[in-house]
Specification:
Helices cover 71% and strands 1% of the residues. It is built from 13 helices and 2 strands; from the N terminus they run αββαααααααααααα. Strands 1-2 form a two-stranded antiparallel sheet. The N terminus is likely disordered.
Length: 364
């Protein structure tokens, strides 16, 4: 899912980041105590929503259901469910908060058809990777977004980065690589549908590449239509995402007898035979995705995108801890060293951004 496009990656339903001026906890209106309370509320909301969503996704990808102990093979159907819920959610929010305001200056819905293609493919690759690698490995791989960004910036646009930025990238790349090369516990491997680390990591990095294009295109839409708000973009992206996924999962299987991709009819049949999935995992995962996006909107609007990045980065670390402790994915001491290496690099990167921001604010 592409949540409020998270910078680091929470949610997956094509929502652009709002772009207010970044603020510290003490900036803006309101008392310090009030702002700290709101910040704590945002942290709790983002952490609880996305950590719980991770637990649900991991359960769906590894657990066997029913008397026949069958796996749920159509993980991409989860993205379809989230598209539908987030589309309905954004429509309600627009009606509640926008009222009868004019649509002048806001991007028309057809503007999202192109970027929604990559926003449909990218998150699908990310969730399909859970068939081949563990959830901690997936989270760690998707935390390395800075690597393709810096690589593309250097090779295509001649962007020059500072030595500390290269050091951060080295830490992240080294951590992800060492984690991938270290031996995974047999207990974790047995839970995977089709253990295949090279394929799993490839899907994650392709997910990052598609997300990068999606983010840039959403920002371009926002700049061309400045009155477009996050709910408008959430509505447009999820409308087209719902259409594309419906065609892929329900129309294509009727046209091609050996359709190799996720089959919506089989997914619905599985849900019918396993009410635990239909009444629990699917609606809960889709609902927390929408709720998590709301908390991201609130965080960015009140405290800025840098604060949101900090919260979502720490959330990813906690997701790995939760997966290891609760979901039974034990990590070796060396693997924990790789995890710390990645998040040390991300933490230094966040610190450098805070430092640059402080310098700009001081000049102003």
């Amino acid at each position: 899912m592409a949540a409020a496009r998270r910078g680091g990656g929470d949610g997956a339903n094509g929502v652009v980041r709002p772009r207010p001026r970044d603020r510290g906890v003490g900036g803006g209106g309101g008392s310090m105590a009030g702002r700290v309370s709101v910040l704590a509320f945002c942290v709790a909301g983002i952490w609880s929503a996305y950590i719980y969503q991770g637990v649900l996704q991991e359960t769906l990808s590894t657990k066997r259901f029913g008397p026949e102990a069958r796996r749920f093979e159509h993980l991409a159907f989860l993205n379809f469910a989230q598209n539908v819920v987030c589309f309905v959610w954004s429509f309600i929010m627009i009606k509640l908060w926008s009222g009868g305001s004019s649509s002048d200056g806001r991007a028309p819905l057809w503007k999202y058809w192109g970027v929604s293609v990559t926003n449909t493919i990218g998150p699908t690759m990310g969730i399909e990777a859970l068939k081949y690698i563990s959830y901690p490995a997936q989270v760690l791989a998707k935390s390395s977004k800075m690597i393709p960004v810096m690589l593309m910036g250097t090779l295509l646009y001649g962007v020059k980065y500072t030595l500390p930025e290269y050091f951060c990238t080295f830490l992240v790349a080294g951590g992800v690589s060492s984690f991938a090369l270290l031996k995974t516990s047999s207990k974790t491997i047995k839970k995977l549908a089709n253990p295949n680390a090279p394929l799993g990591y490839t899907l994650c990095f392709l997910n990052l590449a598609f997300d990068g294009y999606t983010n840039s295109t959403q920002d371009l839409i926002k700049s061309r239509y400045p009155k477009t708000n996050p709910w408008d973009i959430m509505l447009g992206m999820n409308l087209w995402g719902t259409i594309y996924n419906a065609v892929i999962m329900f129309v294509a299987p009727l046209l091609f007898s050996n359709w190799p991709y996720a089959n919506g009819f089989e997914a619905l049949r599985f849900c019918q035979e396993n009410p635990e999935v239909a009444l629990g995992h699917f609606p809960c995962s889709a609902y927390v995705a929408a709720v998590g996006q709301n908390f991201i909107f609130l965080t960015i609007s009140r405290f800025g995108s840098l604060t949101n990045t900090t919260i979502t980065t720490t959330r990813k670390f906690m997701s790995i801890v939760v997966s290891s402790v609760i979901s039974g994915n034990p990590l070796s001491l060396k693997q924990w060293g790789s995890v710390v290496m990645v998040f040390l690099g991300l933490s230094i990167q966040i610190y450098l951004k805070w430092k640059r921001k402080k310098g700009r604010d001081h000049k102003e």
